[in-house]
Amino acid sequence: MAQPGLRPYLASDAAALAALFRASIEALAAEDYDADQREAWASAADDEAAFAARLAGALTIVALADGEIAGFASLKDNKLFDMLYVRPDYAGQGVGAALADAIEKLAGARGTKTLTVEASDTARDFFAARGYVAQSRNTVTIAGEWLGNTTMTKQLAAPPAAGGTH
Description:
The chain contains 5 helices and 7 strands. The N and C termini lie far apart (40 Å). The protein has a 7-stranded mixed sheet with strand order 1-2-3-4-5-7-6. It has a domain at 5-111: Gcn5-related N-acetyltransferase (GNAT) (Aminopeptidase, 3-Layer(aba) Sandwich), CATH 3.40.630.30. By secondary structure, it is an alpha+beta fold. Helix 1 (14-28) packs antiparallel against helix 2 (35-42). This is GCN5 family acetyltransferase. Pfam families: Acetyltransf_10.
């Protein structure tokens, strides 16, 4: 697959991203979380207005492949890699990596020195391969279900100095 195209989140994307969020959790997290845990996690998209507000309240980017939405990612408060979800039929094809590259570059350009992610068990190895280091193991409660995740951080390179000498 060619490198996906990236664009900013639009309010009109909310329904499609909510569906992608649910599909990604259901298909890709099945080895790490049971059906009740996945349903509780995916329920975050049940209130589409609240889900849209979460997307709009962060710097959210959308990946396009073959003219279709293939994934999305968001940066919250310029320091938290808040969401990274890929449509199941595009998993393992570079969509997640392209989105992660963009989020890291955007965070670095905004002066972020350390980027933090609350990585699901499903995503932990993906982030570790990108240089994120586990800081703590967590248990969170979502819709009455306990889910494990790992707080991970990555030191970002300082942006190049403006100007410079020749």
